[in-house]
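re: ur question from earlier - yeah i can do the single chain one, its not a big deal. heres the input i used so u can compare w yours
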Amino acid sequence: QVQLVESGGGLVQAGGSLRLSCTNSGRTYSSHVMGWFRQAPGKEREFAAAISRSAGATYYADSVNGRITISRDNAKNTVYLQMNSLKPEDTAVYYCAAIVARTGYTDYLKYDYWGQGTQVTVSS
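and the output i got, formated as tokens:
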């Protein structure tokens, strides 16, 4: 069973930083590719970043590339999303997710497990 819990969201001014965390309280954490998605009001959930099982490979959406960094600590069953130079358009609920498959990591429909989400609000 995979149970994901996000934390670290909040209100920040434009140009600021936040670090989101996602902890899996279940088993087999290290066997999943982990991803972060975000969903703004009235918009579809969109891919932000993903990281391979061993953390040897990372993937980013063009919209956030260069401003965010995904990382994971398998010993702590935790994946992180460091976000810098935040913009008001980054305002969204951020979700952590786990995918069993080895492909499709940018497609939210392919993910198997989801956290409840954490709100990030960036003020101008």
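The first strand starts at residue 4 and ends at 7. not sure if urs matches, ping me
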